[in-house]
TrEMBL record:
This is Glycosyl transferases group 1. GO terms for molecular function: transferase activity. Keywords: Transferase. Gene3D superfamilies: Glycogen Phosphorylase B. SUPFAM superfamilies: UDP-Glycosyltransferase/glycogen phosphorylase.
Length: 346
């Protein structure tokens, strides 16, 4: 098949993990794939123009993509999330008119802020691909042709390394994400401040922008910021001894796809996460990770892993097995191929 992927941006997490990882695998199977990222990236825009005014150059770029799609006669057009963060659905409708098949991929609760827009896009599509079962349950109300393909990792890049016991440096507690999600990390600052002073801890933060002062002034813990870099991402994550994924128990967080946890598990980093949404499906407490729902639970979980290297190794081994079984690109590319073939047949 000839497949056109319309994505949010080259370095936007949803584009990298929902689309770009799969392209080489689909091409190995004989499909011709073209990726057309938003220009400038969706949700951010050009700093000197602002996100709202950046919709104008985005529209210009999508017009060129539309002309290319009309000329090239793609079999399937895949829209990652939505083409514009505003209420515009004009371009999706135009792509639907010229493409035999339209597939919508959703990995977040984008419908919470714009339910009418999502309804339009879902009903417009031959198939909706949902990143988890909660998103699928919502989508099925608009389009019964909804399929779950979980957010996955290319394990050829994520080499597993079991935890090691090193007494010559602090226990590194790690968090990675976009700067817009810093409030999530802020949920556990009380727990971090209450960790015993006789244990040497470091909080390592990886994001595209420096964290606010409330995350860097923890008194008893050294905090180190590591600017996110696509080429160093996996190497930087390997510095974590324990991976953290706190989430608020709210509607938006419940639709998250657990990417942080999956990255930790794939690399052999034992994870602690809030039991919110898909986190409780990925992690089974005390089997392949730890779940914490209060300040006391976070303190206990961190101290247990810091003190018990055998527990860290046990959780790391089971965590990697979880990713291999359910959340690998190598496994789920077959699901993508089946979805694209099925959608094209409808």
């Amino acid at each position: 098949m000839r497949i056109l992927f319309l994505t949010s941006g080259r370095e936007v997490p949803s584009s990298r993990f929902r689309v770009l990882q799969y392209v080489p695998y689909l091409e190995q199977r004989g499909h011709h794939c073209v990726v057309a990222p938003s220009k400038p990236p969706k949700y951010r825009g050009w700093p000197w123009l602002g996100n709202r005014l950046s919709e104008l150059p985005r529209a210009g770029a999508r017009t060129l993509d539309l002309l290319r799609a009309a000329w090239s006669r793609f079999d399937v057009v895949v829209v990652e999330r939505e083409l514009f963060s505003s209420g515009i659905t004009f371009f999706e409708k135009q792509f639907r008119r010229i493409a035999p098949t339209l597939v919508l991929d959703v990995d977040d609760g984008v419908f919470l802020s714009a339910p009418q827009k999502f309804q339009e896009l879902a009903t417009l599509s031959n198939t909706v691909v949902a990143g988890n079962r909660l998103i699928a349950a919502y989508s099925e109300k608009q389009n019964p042709r909804t399929v779950v393909i979980p957010t996955s990792l290319d394990l050829s890049r994520y080499e597993y390394q079991p935890p090691t016991h090193r007494v010559d440096r602090p226990i590194v507690l790690g968090w990675t994400g976009t700067a817009g999600n810093y409030p999530q990390l802020g949920l556990i600052t009380d727990a971090l401040r209450q960790l015993p002073a006789d244990r040497d801890y470091e909080l390592r933060i990886i994001a595209e922008r420096e964290p606010p002062a409330e995350l860097t002034s923890l008194d008893n813990i050294k905090v180190r910021f590591q600017p996110w870099n696509a080429e160093r991402e996996i190497e930087d994550l390997r510095a974590f001894d324990i991976g953290l994924m706190p989430l608020p128990d709210d509607e938006w967080a419940r639709y998250k796809c657990g990417l942080k946890v999956l990255q930790y598990l794939a690399l052999g980093i034992p994870a602690i996460a809030s039991p919110v949404g898909v986190n409780s499906e990925i992690l089974t407490h005390d089997q392949n990770g730890l779940l914490a729902d209060s300040t006391a639970a976070w303190i206990d979980a961190i101290e247990r892993l810091a003190d018990d290297i055998d527990l860290r190794r046990k959780l790391a081994t089971a965590g990697r097995t979880t990713v291999e079984a359910t959340y690998s690109v190598e496994k789920n590319v077959t699901l993508w191929e089946e979805v694209l073939n099925s959608a094209a047949a409808t």
